[in-house]
Amino acid sequence: MRLPCLALTILIALTGRVHAEEARAWLAGDHHVHSRFSGKRAEDGTYVLGKDGIYTLPDNARHARQYGLSWVVLIDHGGEGLSKLRYEQAYPEFLQARQAVPDLIQFFGMELDTPGGDHSSLIMAIDPQEAETLRHLESTYAAHETKDPARDDPARMIAALAEMQGLTPRPLVIANHPSRGASSPDGYGRHTPQSLRRWMDTAPDVAIGMEGAPGHQGASLKIGATPDTLRKRGYYEQSPTYGGFDAMTARLGGVWDGLLGEGRHFVVTATSDSHRNVADGGEDFWPGQYAKTWVKARKDPADILDGLRKGRVFVATGDLVSELDMDIAGANLGDTAEVKKGQTVRVSVRLRTPAGPNAHGDHPQLERVDLIMGDVTGQVAERNPTTRVVKSFTPADWTREGEVITLNWAFTATTDAYLRLRGTATDEAEPLPDPLGENPWPDLWVYGSPVYIEVR
Length: 456
Hints:
Layout: H1 2-15, E1 25-33, E2 40-41, E3 47-48, H2 57-66, E4 71-74, H3 82-100, E5 105-113, E6 119-123, H4 130-141, H5 154-165, E7 172-175, H6 193-202, E8 207-213, H7 247-250, H8 255-261, E9 267-270, E10 291-297, H9 301-310, E11 313-317, E12 323-328, E13 336-339, E14 344-352, E15 368-375, E16 388-393, E17 399-401, E18 404-412, E19 417-424, E20 445-448, E21 451-455
Parallel strand pairs: 1-4, 4-5, 7-8, 8-9, 13-21
Antiparallel strand pairs: 1-10, 2-3, 5-6, 6-7, 10-11, 11-20, 12-14, 14-18, 15-16, 15-19, 17-18, 19-20, 19-21
Helix pairs in contact: 2-3, 3-4, 5-6
């Protein structure tokens, strides 16, 4: 009997904790937070800190914890020669942030100037070699690490993803503000369905999703803003956001639904893209102040990344919802429910709506919940015409006990499909394009990852 006890003691000593009995809980986070290391080039070519992002890494960590986050990814822009600066200057300050806020799980990373694409969050797994690995990936693959235009090539990104897929532990890549560069609501920027699909085909455990709700949501609240200086939410000039969400996510039957209809497990996130807070004359919120990405995980870095990969995820703005569980034949968010054709399948949804005030001092109310279904055909398509709202619930249709709302629905299984949830504090039947100058605080939404349904 002594040998197993000794082995367990050694295991605890090596890992620092045992998670076998620890239950997963909803943990809020943000994977897109900038610091003073997102600087700018001066006329003499030197890189000046604090000219874009203005806060130290410990400052960001403290505010993330203040606004209820359990995990955060501290990233900064890339650029000419910045892999060296990130390794020699930013990483030591990042370690200080970990020490200053030890109860916040902090991932190191960067906002990759994606070869052949727009920006993306490159999130390193917590590992003794995290800084060295990031330096290698950035110096080898980042589009603007040198002045060579040939580096801005989609093939270079595919090579980067192929290498990342082979790493242990693997990093994550999430496409940032995917439609911000689009010329119209129906167009695409440098992130396209085709490029995202190719990323996933190359590195399915690395390229896992896109920002559903981009940052820079406080543009209308900027101190001293005038009609001539106002910017749209998210800086989305030609392709607007819809309820603060990117068109690829918010438009029913759009790109996200198209990818889900192919059978792909693809997540959407919500971030701050924090550079300068509205209280300091900027257009951004602190991490967690307005938007949160919730992951069902143990408070363990590897399990948080696993939750993002597996789709145990929902996103919400304005603290509209803080827990979301949807059970379909024993499967929850990100899982696959196996059912028989013709079977009556019951859907049980549980949401927690916080009773306390959000960061704006408001007590937002959930006005409607939509269950959205789409067929999974496996066919490659930019849209999914089968996507529809199969049931809308209002307060008259659900049961409330304190902060917890429960609702139920049933359907007959006929074909492979997915079911996802969307909720809002507004009276909009579908999220509308966000007008210039809109106050983001009343315009709140929640989106859940799908449960996949496989008919046998």
